[in-house]
Amino acid sequence: MSLIEQPFRLVRPAAWSSGVIFASPHSGCEYPEWFLADTNLSIDELRSSEDAFVDRFIEAAPHYGAVALSSPIPRSIVDLNRAADEIDPLLVRGVPRHPLNQRTMAGLGVIPRVVSQGRAIHRRQMERAEAERRIEACWRPYHQQLDALIREARARFGQAILIDMHSMPHDALSHLQGPRPDMVLGNRHGLSAAARISEAVCEAIEDEGWRIRRNSPFSGAYICSAYGRPAQNIHVVQLEIDRSLYMDEATITPRADFDGFAKRMERVVARLSALGADRGNGQIAAE
Predict the structure, then answer these.
(1) What is the DSSP letter of 284?
(2) Domain range holding 260?
């Protein structure tokens, strides 16, 4: 069985400005036949887990001096924002029922058991060898590349800044009191990024007229926790965008004003692509 021919898409700028990386690990929408043959869900149901179209928002990053990294792998096949050992024993045979985190218990481990609204993806349980094959073919190459980019940025610029781009259903914020934010920035309550980085991201968003909230209800998942090391000038922020701002969530199609939204996002990307470039190579103080 052929899994995925290319587990990531990497576009480098002609001149990398300051070690900024934009990534979209959940926007993949290439569903191979072997996967579709093993699910009762329709394409639209499977796509409800995607960060659909988010990869388009980072396409311009190389033009402004930042790296763009995305993946064609659908989240329902392998979730790149989970640890490789977050394996759900209710889905995968032969996995010890060790203490699990809430995400895995909910069926949202590295090999997801469900998509949105708790709909089961697979018709039957999976052998452990199959889960490991997906991780080796899809998860590991993406993270090897991401890790290499972060190390390269840190060596060249004295800093690495990863803006990990995601989307959230509009209803994910229905429980909040008062005006809903348009976006949520997660930095694990300061553990994955220095205050100055988070402030810069928030200011860029707010200057485009959007409301942003920090760390609630999304404070950052695996990628933030695995890579964010602000004391070493490695900063990772997770940015969740309300899907209803740019797409019809029922049909998973761009809104009529999608291009206007994308232009505003491009201005944010342009502004953040040079983040820290004026501090000089290796002259950035740890915070």
Answers:
(1) P
(2) 9-74+141-279
